[in-house]
Amino acid sequence: MLKRVLNRVKQRYNVSAAETDYQDKWQRTVIELVSAAADYTAAEAEIHRAVSFMESFPEWEPVASRLERL
């Protein structure tokens, strides 16, 4: 399920997505999304759309999220 959702996110939105922690745990993971754009507003909007899409799956329960600008 996780790989399928990550592939859909990458195809639908201008983001890179990867599982970056807890690969050996069955019910826990850390997913990182990265977006690059000409300005922060566009990149953040794309990230928010991708996160909303991922949260639409009832099998998932988001615990925390954090947004960083580089």
TrEMBL record:
Residue ranges crossing the lipid bilayer per the database entry: none
SUPFAM superfamilies tied to this protein: Hypothetical protein TT1725
Record-linked InterPro entries: DUF503 (IPR007546), TT1725-like_sf (IPR036746)
Protein name: DUF503 family protein
Origin organism lineage: Bacteria, Bacillati, Bacillota, Bacilli, Bacillales
